[in-house]
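Cross-posting from the modeling subforum.

Setting up a comparison between two proteins and wanted a second pair of eyes on the formatting. Protein 1 (sequence, then structure tokens):
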Amino acid sequence: MTEREICELFGVIAPTVRAEIKALCKSGVLSIYDIQRIIRISDRYSAEVYNLETIAALAFRVESFGAAKVRRALLERIIHERKEKTAVFVSVVSDGKPNSRWKA
């Protein structure tokens, strides 16, 4: 996504997005070299785009109605999208000695 698209998604202005990206990079959460790419649109035009990791990190950093909607959508996908059943197997083994410990 471009900076403009991020601004529209979160409902904030560009300086807010830039400041939050800078803060995320300064804190070590993101690396400036990994989060953005420059794509060529034509011979004369190019665009800086940010990856999904950046969008997700910004969603949890920016306080706006749009960011809250993105946070909810991300968490909804993470928590509720797993429809398949997950089996958990725990084996309890004892070697028969009186002082043996349970192993799981």
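Protein 2 (same layout):
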Amino acid sequence: MEQNPLANIYNYSVRFNDVANREAVKYPLPFMLCPSTPGGPRMHPKFPAVVPPGDTKWPAAACDYAGSAGPDAKLWTVTPPAVRYPQPANTNGFFVGTVQPGGHGRQYRDITDGSSNTIVLVESAARPEVWQAGKAVPGSGLEASASATYVSVCSWAEGNLFKVRGYTADGATWGGPCLINCTNYYAMYSFHPGAVNTGRVDGSVRTLRSSATPDVIAALLTIAGGEVVNDE
């Protein structure tokens, strides 16, 4: 990724939020930013820094892409369900269990749904600000913002992954059938009309259009749900 200067200052022997990594985590990674996102790069002022006594808190650079932890269970449990097929026994996404201390990365044998049919990265742009249906929520993304107006999982340096949610079309209510471009609050969101970009296990980057059904999107977000899916 041609980030040798950053690699040279990042201290791999301590945690991401240690003071030894104060300067490294402030660095915006170009490949984690979408050029279509207005007003970037953004910072994450609520970054969970471990501040030494007498020192001051520091922010981290935010990013426009996040790891998939799979589809949110509420897609099946709302009334009426957003996803019509029965909830699989395994709805894990690619990064579930991989970022905790002692966790292990995925192997191809884990991805039984197929490498081209499994999403690794989702676009979730403009975090930590909250955007709904094309507009930024006033007062969002600030250190003083309430949790409902701040996407606290947003920097490349931390465990930047989440269960992908569905919302109502206005982006205001969690539990609806809209999974693309209704809100970026733990959901897929971009500034591309009617679409987001996704990274797949096979290394490809593929556009996922807002016309895709919740059934298709949920199936793409699992690694071993056993669904048959075609998002072409």
